[in-house]
User: Fold this.
Amino acid sequence: MAQFPLSLAEVHEAIVTCNRCPRLREYCQRIAREKRAAFRDQTYWGRPVAGFGDPDARIALIGLAPAAHGANRTGRNFTGDGPGGSGDFLMTALFANGLANQPYSRAADDGLLLHDAWIAAVVRCAPPDNTPTPGEIAACHAHLRAELDALPNLRVYVALGRIAFTAIWRLFAERGIRPRTRPIFEHGGVYRLPAAPLVVAAYHPSRQNTNTGRLTPLMLKSAFRKAVAMANATVPQR
Ligand code: SF4
Assistant:
């Protein structure tokens, strides 16, 4: 019987060896075999992607899922989706708030270090069309819960998109923490419940959002400025 909470190393071993979702595992492996022409000489990761960052982080970012030729190739979330992609967009905002040491994320060995931040995801295998099924989201939820439970200093969760926002409230419900009214996702919104990490909501930095101007660099920087301010103003809540 496993002991809880698991260590980060145990959580990550469980993630990268997971085969619960046959559709996603087959898709990730096929993408890794077939590759995009520009990456033909590279060895794709092709496995589920664990979170990364500062194990002492007070702020957890929760994204959606790896990109087929991004994290499914590089093995690191928000990494390798090209110049100007979601990785660079996100790191620019983290860098501006002192949460990353550089404003880009291109490869697993690019020197990126996070400070006081951790990047997790709702789903750890790249889904076709960036769209996991509800069953796949449910199947992967235990990995998210275990990873966050293995980070002892978290005070703030940043939901990158509505699916992450929903996953956070599910986590809280599992801990017996329920809001009186159903929280409504709103970019820049801050949500406080007793005995729970604060939640900051932000649009996901997908190209669909950033290319259309729905999410601007200023908007994402501002959301992380709030997250840092909240982390500084609160005491640890698990
Ligand atoms: S999406 Fe999550 S639960 Fe499904 S196979 Fe990948 S790691 Fe396992």
Observations:
- The beta strands are 52-53, 59-63, 117-121, 156-160, 190-191, 198-202.
- The mean pLDDT is 95.
- The pocket of iron/sulfur cluster is lined by residues 15, 18-21, 24-25, 48, 123-125, 136, 139-140, 143 (CB under 6 Å).
- Residues 8-233 form a domain with the Uracil-DNA Glycosylase, subunit E fold (CATH 3.40.470.10).
